[in-house]
Amino acid sequence: MHVRKAVITAAARGLRLYPAGDPVEKSSLPLLDQDGVVKPLLQIVAEEALRAGIEELAVICAPGDEPRYRERFAQRARSVREAFGDVEWAETQAQHLEELLARTRFLVQEEARGYGHAVLQARAFAGDEPFLLLLGDHLYLSHERERGCAAQLVQAAERAGRSLCAVQATREHLVPRYGTIRAEREATSGGLWRVRAVIEKPSLSRAELELQTNGLRAGHYLCFFGMHVLLPAIFEPLEEAARGNGEVGLSEALDRLAREQELYAHELAGVRCDVGGNLGYLRTQLALGLAGARRDEVLALLVETLASQAPHGGARA
């Protein structure tokens, strides 16, 4: 199995980042990336996919967003050339933006009917091929020097030849924030987990009853990491759910896939960062800075900032 396509869901507005995230796409918000360059979130996610060997990208967007995305990428390429002239770094950045745009198509989600409905818009794009699925409001920081999180997952899926969900052992008090699975280790699966059940953002009481997974540390559950490699079989349950009038959830479709066919999970060496909330945005920027090429400068700034603050409840000297 060879994974050469990726889908990035980016149709939602950043209501939790109001007012900055209200008039613009959440995925257009800027962050200082690990290479020291300030980029929109979507570009950082797309580059994660390209480093994993992805050749074609599809971005699921809201109505009217495609021309804005295209113009912003083209404008950034023009601006960096105008600002820096013939500087090699600037030309490299401009060419990179143009190549990224050339590899990307935009698919419109006409109705806001949930994550699964957004994924369903990529059915024709995926065709009969497996695809990497990424969230447009999550960033992924690998603990491995040579491989990003997407590369870890893609390589594991290609070895297994199966639909594969990235998961991470997560403390129980965080379970209501994530899709959570019950799974079993299988000796013949190359260290993967065989998924038996999937529940989207379960209560802790429900997780204790239905989602206990043997082999984890006490008080931990396997929760989704925010990326998957999926075979086209996922579209059948999504299509069936979309015939109704309500929201279409991806977790529900994955649960059906696990029960009726097969679904596996793989633990990644890394951390996920949800950019969706204001503190999440702050945490993500700190994590990127501390993992990046300017780590020493970021650490120095943090120390300087902490030292300059008066003690809680006190006054400045």
3D structure, described in words:
The chain is α/β, with parallel strands linked by helices. It has a single domain, classed as Spore Coat Polysaccharide Biosynthesis Protein SpsA, Chain A (Alpha-Beta Complex), CATH 3.90.550.10. It has helices at 41-51, 65-84, 88-102, 115-120, 123-126, 149-160, 204-210, 235-242, 250-260, 278-291, 295-308; strands at 5-9, 30-32, 38-40, 56-61, 104-108, 131-135, 138-142, 164-171, 179-185, 193-200, 220-230, 264-267, 270-274. The chain has a five-stranded mixed beta barrel. It has a two-stranded antiparallel ribbon with strand order 2-3. Strands 7-13 form a two-stranded antiparallel ribbon. A hairpin with a 7-residue loop joins strand 9 (179-185) and strand 10. The model has no long low-confidence stretch (mean pLDDT 89).
